[in-house]
């Protein structure tokens, strides 16, 4: 039986939900508005909500100072590249854990998750030195490698949870039908797990896109993605709020759009394993 | 060809011995049913033959070749699962064609064979549908179609009819039997339903706790059960067992009489009791008679006679058809040859 909710309670919760939503969205909204203001309006006190004159000057300045599209393509290469490599490794790994578990499978899964609990700054020196010696500093493939390693546990965990929902009978039927291991994965498992694989892909592209610690510490000019592009605007000469806002808006716009259009898949991805 | 030989096959999951030691010889073209109560190891045994589980010991031979360690794909067997296990993302046509595609069969041959299987199983109108748009019976036909096109050495059926309703089950039972007569390929069929076993099998393997209790034709099992377990398991309604002094009269630890082997009389008989429940099925009536000392005894009688609940009746077992058992349950020589 459905629980009965009083109309007043319903209205109160709706208002509260909108309020929380607005508070969360406010910084992004403020940054977008500021990016259209002049520098003096941006730091005005009391603050000006809407720009008196809407200007695109900040965007032109940002593009003139450093090439936005170069950083944008670096971000795309690194986030999509690391996610695809992660999936390529993660699908077989999750397959073996979901369908052929051993006594130690749970321990391995926990161990992989535990690497996410370690603060990144704890390993920055060894990784920096390795990168220096292997000449991977400021290279797109070096960053792709690091981000693959960082997001692999999440990829495997998500895929593992999706794969567990697939009846093992169907994979066994494929085996009986003469499918070798890789054919079983390519023709049967992957098509059945497409929704799960899609949300894993989306979530990990977003995580890799937003990753700021390694991308800023291991790059300089050549391989710098958008995260490094934004941070380059907080300079010792002082903060240029309007330009910084324009850079931020440019950096978050692609991922915001991606998130908007794939909301359904993402919600499924973020609540994976929550039901059933 | 499709002979299957199991030689001292055993299987343990950790410390649990599911199948202690089984040896079986299944002839080419035979329809063999594995029957037994749930948890007796019949499905495990089938999965060992399929290669979906690894044996702990013993050898499995197909047509004389040792296949104990061969992967399922290399054994040349086809399996029909209880859950149908159709590929949900493929059409019926692609489901049936899948094994052929895996074997790199040319496209025109695939089309030909799928068409043949679809005609045999009346699936022509559904070839472009997805499995979720089919009824249970149609899904089971697709699963069978997928098995047929491979032209396997043997078919393995794992309780394929348990998800269907009673009427459809009878139909599918007939269809599978006809299919066997048509293809003449070895079939191994797992079920817990002894009626399915009796009606379909050339020979039945009765399993209990991972052991073969008896391997024989349906009528052998019915007429000459090797022990009390088989006697109780084969036959519907179940055989009545009588222990104690009434069994001792027949020089046995216990005796068994099938419900159809009692003579029923309103005047006199060996045992006297009162009708507790009369189940009228039309052609037959099953009487559950409360007999003093023995408890509830089931008797099968013609559908034309009617009995009131509480009515006193007299039962006389057919002396030629009394089964005698020793203390450990082994059958002693009995009347019926």
Automatic annotation (TrEMBL), chain A:
Keywords: Cell membrane, Membrane, Transmembrane, Transmembrane helix, Transport. Residues 72-262 form the ABC transmembrane type-1 domain. Pfam families: BPD_transp_1 (PF00528). It is found in: Cell membrane. It comes from the Bacteria. It is a multi-pass membrane protein. One of its GO terms (cellular component) is plasma membrane. InterPro entries: BP-dep_ABC_trans_perm, MetI-like, MetI-like_sf. Gene3D superfamilies: MetI-like (1.10.3720.10). The keyword Metal-binding does not apply. Belongs to the binding-protein-dependent transport system permease family. This is Mannitol ABC transporter permease. It comes from Devosia pacifica.
From TrEMBL, chain B:
It holds the Pfam family TOBE_2. Its main location: membrane. Keywords: ATP-binding, Nucleotide-binding, Transport. It is a peripheral membrane protein. The lineage of its organism: Bacteria, Pseudomonadati, Pseudomonadota, Alphaproteobacteria, Hyphomicrobiales. It comes from Devosia pacifica. SUPFAM superfamilies: MOP-like, P-loop containing nucleoside triphosphate hydrolases. It comes from the Bacteria. The gene is smoK. It is found in: Cell inner membrane. Belongs to the ABC transporter superfamily. PANTHER family: MALTODEXTRIN IMPORT ATP-BINDING PROTEIN MSMX (PTHR43875), MALTOSE_MALTODEXTRIN IMPORT ATP-BINDING PROTEIN MALK (PTHR43875:SF3). This is Sugar ABC transporter ATP-binding protein.
């Amino acid at each position: 039986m459905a629980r009965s909710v009083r109309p007043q309670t319903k209205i109160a919760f709706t208002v509260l939900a909108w309020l929380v939503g607005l508070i969360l969205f406010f910084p992004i909204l403020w940054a977008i508005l500021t990016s259209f203001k002049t520098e003096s309006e941006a730091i005005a006190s009391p603050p000006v909500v809407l720009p008196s004159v809407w200007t695109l000057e900040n965007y032109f300045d940002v593009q003139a100072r450093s090439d936005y599209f170069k950083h944008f393509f670096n971000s795309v290469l690194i986030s999509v590249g690391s996610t695809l490599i992660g999936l390529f490794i993660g699908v077989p790994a999750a397959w073996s854990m979901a369908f052929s578990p051993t006594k130690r499978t749970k321990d391995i899964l926990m161990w992989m998750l535990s690497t996410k609990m370690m603060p990144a700054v704890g390993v920055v020196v060894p990784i920096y030195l390795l990168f220096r010696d292997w000449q991977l500093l400021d290279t797109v493939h070096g960053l792709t490698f690091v981000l693959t390693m960082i997001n692999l546990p999440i990829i495997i965990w998500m895929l593992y949870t999706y794969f567990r929902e697939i009846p093992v009978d169907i994979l066994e039927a494929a085996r009986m039908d003469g499918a070798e291991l890789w054919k079983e994965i390519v023709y049967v498992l992957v098509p059945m797990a497409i929704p799960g694989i899609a949300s894993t892909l989306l979530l990990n592209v977003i995580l890799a896109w937003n990753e700021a610690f390694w991308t800023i510490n291991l790059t300089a000019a050549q391989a710098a993605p958008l995260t490094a592009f934004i941070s380059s605007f907080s300079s010792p000469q002082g903060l240029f709020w309007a330009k910084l806002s324009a850079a931020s808006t440019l950096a978050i716009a692609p991922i915001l759009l991606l998130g908007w259009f794939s909301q359904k898949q993402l919600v499924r991805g973020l609540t994976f394993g929550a039901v059933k | 060809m499709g002979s299957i030989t199991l030689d001292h096959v055993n299987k343990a999951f950790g410390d649990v011995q599911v199948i202690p030691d089984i040896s079986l010889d299944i002839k080419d073209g035979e329809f063999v049913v594995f029957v037994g109560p749930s948890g007796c190891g019949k499905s495990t045994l089938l999965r060992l033959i399929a290669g979906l589980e690894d044996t702990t010991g013993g050898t499995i031979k197909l047509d004389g070749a040792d296949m104990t360690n061969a992967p399922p794909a290399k054994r040349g067997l086809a399996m029909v699962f209880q859950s149908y296990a159709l590929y949900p993302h493929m059409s019926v046509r692609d489901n049936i064609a899948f094994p052929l595609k895996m074997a790199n069969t040319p496209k025109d041959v695939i089309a030909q064979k799928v068409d043949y299987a679809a005609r045999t199983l009346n699936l022509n109108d559904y070839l472009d549908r997805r499995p979720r748009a089919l009824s249970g019976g149609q899904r089971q036909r697709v699963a069978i179609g997928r098995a047929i096109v491979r032209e396997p050495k043997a078919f393995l059926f794992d309780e394929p009819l348990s998800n269907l309703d009673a009427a459809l089950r009878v139909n599918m039972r007939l269809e599978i039997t006809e299919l066997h007569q048509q293809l003449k390929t070895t079939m191994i069929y797992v079920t817990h339903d002894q009626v399915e076993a009796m009606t379909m099998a050339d020979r039945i393997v009765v399993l209990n706790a991972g052991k073969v209790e008896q391997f024989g034709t349906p009528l052998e099992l019915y007429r000459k059960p090797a022990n009390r377990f088989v006697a109780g398991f084969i036959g519907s309604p179940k055989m009545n067992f009588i222990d104690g002094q009434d069994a001792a009269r027949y020089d046995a630890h216990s005796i068994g009489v099938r419900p159809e082997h009692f003579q029923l009389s309103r005047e006199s008989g060996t045992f006297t009791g009162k009708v507790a429940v009369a189940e009228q099925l039309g052609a037959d009536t099953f009487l559950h008679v409360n007999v003093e000392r023995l408890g509830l005894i089931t008797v099968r009688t013609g559908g034309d006679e009617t009995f009131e609940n509480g009515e006193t009746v007299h039962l006389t077992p057919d002396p030629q058809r009394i089964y005698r058992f020793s203390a450990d349950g082994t059958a002693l020589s009995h009347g019926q040859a």
